[in-house]
## 1
Amino acid sequence: MKVIIFGASGLLGKELIGQWPDDEVVGLGSRHGDIRDAAKVGDLVEEVCPQWIVVAAAYTNVDECESHPQLAFEVNRDSAVNIAEAAKRIGARLLFISSDYVFDGKKSSAYQTDDLRNPQSVYGRSKAEAEVRLLQVLPECCIVRTSWLFGTGGKCFPDTILKLAATRPVLDVVSDQRGCPTYAVDLARAIVELCRKDARGILHVTNAGDCSWFEFAREIVKRAGVQTEVRPVSTLQMARPAPRPAYSVLSPDSLHKYGISMPTWLDALSRYLQERRR
Ligand SMILES: NC(=O)c1ccc[n+]([C@@H]2O[C@H](COP(=O)([O-])OP(=O)(O)OC[C@H]3O[C@@H](n4cnc5c(N)ncnc54)[C@H](OP(=O)(O)O)[C@@H]3O)[C@@H](O)[C@H]2O)c1
């Protein structure tokens, strides 16, 4: 199988390259071309002529998106459509990575794939609108929503917590936002399997279990054997430019239909910490 990964230099993209050994995988980052350039995207796709295209490229700085909405929509929505149109021309399958931020966070039980999108931030809107447009261009495409991504391939929450904990005796972390941490290695493995299983439609792929950012940070510090105290604070106390969903736990039901189960986030965290120490 021939595959193109857009966003191969990112946190998830690097793991996708590493977890996809048996196929011919072409990884593309922004240095190979800007995905906002439809003609360039078309050339790249036609040159490789893959069976699958995975879109892990995105403008992922959620707070910056608030002050750069045009860039957010161009990269996260319009570029995804460019890639989908190129995929359609050559008959390739498309897997697009989306986010829990398409939801408003007002539920108190796990979000199902057909729950109403109601994004609260520019980033969330750009992803939600991308989903709608992609399903119009390529109704058979696969949309994988994930959340709270972490891994050794880039900036992420556990890395930030450990760096801060190395110099501070106390860390204040938000305790009123709940979601599912997701290890990039586990997500990448699931994506490879989904492509091999010819998956289509919207799927939720996260590690199993859920927690608040406070609980996540407390576990990171404890497992790393650091003495720093982690204190719970409210979202209101930690004002950020982009609103976050208070509750964005994604149900695994859609993934289970493909016979795929994800390890728990606690298990994933142990493996991440081991990998980080290497
Ligand atoms: N991080 C999270 O917590 C999280 C949660 C839910 C969903 N997601 C989604 O998961 C996917 C992967 O996220 P990630 O954290 O791995 O992202 P990331 O580390 O920020 O990587 C983003 C990738 O996109 C590429 N890119 C950005 N703008 C581009 C442009 N205009 N043209 C070409 N390439 C461009 C970057 O290339 P360069 O490095 O060359 O600039 C990089 O390879 C994204 O779709 C993201 O929205 C992430």
## 2
Amino acid sequence: MSTGYDHTAGPLTTESGAPIASNNQSEAAGPGGPLLIQDQVLLEKLAHFNRERIPERVVHARGAGAYGTFTVTADVTAYTRAAFLSEVGKETETFLRFSTVAGSLGSADAVRDPRGWALKFYTEEGNYDLVGNNTPVFFIRDAIKFPDFIHTQKRDPYTGSQEADNVWDFWSHSPESVHQVTWLFGDRGIPASYRHMDGFGSHTYQWVNEAGEQFWVKYHFKTDQGIRNLTQAEADALAGTDPDSHQRDLREAIERGEYPSWTVQVQIMPAAEAATYRFNPFDLTKVWPNADYPRITIGKLELNRNPENVFAEVEQSAFSPAHFVPGIGPSPDKMLQGRLFAYGDAHRYRVGVNADQLPVNRPHATVARNGNRDGLGYDGRHGRSRNYEPNSFGGPAETGRPLWAPVQVAGATGAWETPRHAEDDDFVQAGNLYRLMSADEQDRLIANLAGFLAKVGRDDIVERAVGNFAKADEQYGKRLAAAVAELRGR
Ligand code: HEM
């Protein structure tokens, strides 16, 4: 990401390029001061320093990123017309930012929290962003609940700390969270590093092929390094002694030439099967069991280049679930639909209206051509080209071909509950996950959950929370109730 200039040769200069005589003593009215307003070197330096920070991400503030290569290993042209997936062996440049969710920019890496998995494919038809997590499901199924949920994960307005009461109050009032909470407090809740975890697109997305046939798709990225996790005790120790553990591990592995990689798989559902599938396929709190829709391996993702400048390329990186390319589109998932708005809006606030044209964010394999111009930080890249369409001067024109296929909708507008399919309830998959765990993992799950739940002050919140786990599996609920009662001494 070099600018072409050598920033080390020649004298120190001001921002406007004039040589600096003194960078260690301010200009003063006599040896003892006071300082002079004519010392523009001092004033410019202090003023620039005051403006070094941009707002941190409201969630996923803490993260690390790397560039890489995605390679297609299977023919998927029957399912999508996306150009970057059009040929076995085809390679696409990528940038992947990993993150934790709740902590602020300076927080520790080794914590129990989902890990963000934000992947940008720089394709020849525009950038395709897949903004997922290391978990296949999520806590809630409607975007309108997200700000309330995050408020309970972040610092309480009065105490200034995360409060167990708030976290469990929200979760216990949102029984659809039991599946993700079971996942999070199980062994995979604290990955040993970003390299040793899987990634997921999590939502269901639409793929459409050249003939216009539609499919619903879920993405899985299986780590080739193997899954490795930390216990709560290991993580507590590491977070205290080495807060940057995950970030450094990623950078150093790439520096050593040990490029981490993931096997990319998809589950594919023909569009016509969605209406009668046993689970609502657009409910983000549910997985599609592999037995129903087996995973198909379609590619390899390798990370092989560190960013040169963390602020420019990681802090200013901007991913949006609304960044689609021809052949890929959204599903009606009510979480995804909200996210289609939220990210671009966040970028315009956090990085500015020209965020998408910064080097890390702009298309690398094509260029952005439209009439959008100006605004803070605009670099004039369009030169004298006209800024409207249609025009008679050979400007770019619309294609008339939507990126994705139309989706049938039905019913009146309204604040509806998400429709339930034959086997849907909030608890069935959480119970299945609990019963899938080994006895040892169940023990650790109960201990991890009880340790946090026992910090809750109010009995009604504890009871409501335990009641939800009991609905997932009676034994799960009973064991948790006993463990919490023991820790709370009542
Ligand atoms: C409706 C629910 C959600 C809303 C409103 C929301 C909103 C946001 C916002 C505003 C950001 C900060 C973006 C920025 O400043 O660049 C963010 C970051 C992120 N979100 Fe969400 N989010 C939601 C759900 C999810 C879900 C379900 C996932 C994963 C499946 C997810 C994954 C991420 C990731 C990975 C990032 C960090 C992106 C990066 O590395 O820059 N979010 N989210």
